[in-house]
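Postdoc handover notes: sequence design on the structure in folder B. Input tokens:
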């Protein structure tokens, strides 16, 4: 059984950072085009700065981060959202480690984040994902997300590498 909770202690944030690093490594290894995009958008200094800033970005009232641990206490998944604009949250860094996959943990994480964003008063939630993450894309569609045009300037340069989705939280 997995337990989901917001980070409470510095070690939780360290575990989230490790999961985020594993996620970026996974993306880069899965697709040569993704590796080039990640290198351009997340050079080492920018990546380190982003990881250091996670607690500020993903803390209520504008954001949220969740950490999943297995029964043994091992960090096996994470995800969060940040404020995109006054009415919209952006889903970020949803990742389930290979040890946590196959348990419905991705669905549990995304559902909890959707509920959290709705509870915070956001009217919609957006996300982008790499085109080759087909299990994630199926999950987002199954949870009621619809495909939409890119919403960040970088989406225009990423072309077919990235797919963007949105979910209305008012229904």
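Designed sequence:
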């Amino acid at each position: 059984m997995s337990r989901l909770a917001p980070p409470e202690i510095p070690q939780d944030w360290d575990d989230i950072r490790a999961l985020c690093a594993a996620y970026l490594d996974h993306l880069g290894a899965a697709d040569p085009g993704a590796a080039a995009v990640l290198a351009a958008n997340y050079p080492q200094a920018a990546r380190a700065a982003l990881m250091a800033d996670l607690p500020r970005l993903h803390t209520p009232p504008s954001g949220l981060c969740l950490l999943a641990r297995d029964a043994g206490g091992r960090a096996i998944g994470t995800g969060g959202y940040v404020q995109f604009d006054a009415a919209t949250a952006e889903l970020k860094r949803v990742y389930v480690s290979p040890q946590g996959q196959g348990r419905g943990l991705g669905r549990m994480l995304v559902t909890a984040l959707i509920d959290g964003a709705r509870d915070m008063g956001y009217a919609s939630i957006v996300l982008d994902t790499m085109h080759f993450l087909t299990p994630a894309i199926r999950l987002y569609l199954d949870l009621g997300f619809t495909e939409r045009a890119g919403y960040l300037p970088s989406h225009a340069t990423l072309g077919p590498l990235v797919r963007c989705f949105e979910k209305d939280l008012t229904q």
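Context for whoever picks this up: The chain has a mean pLDDT of 93. Don't rerun without checking with the PI first.
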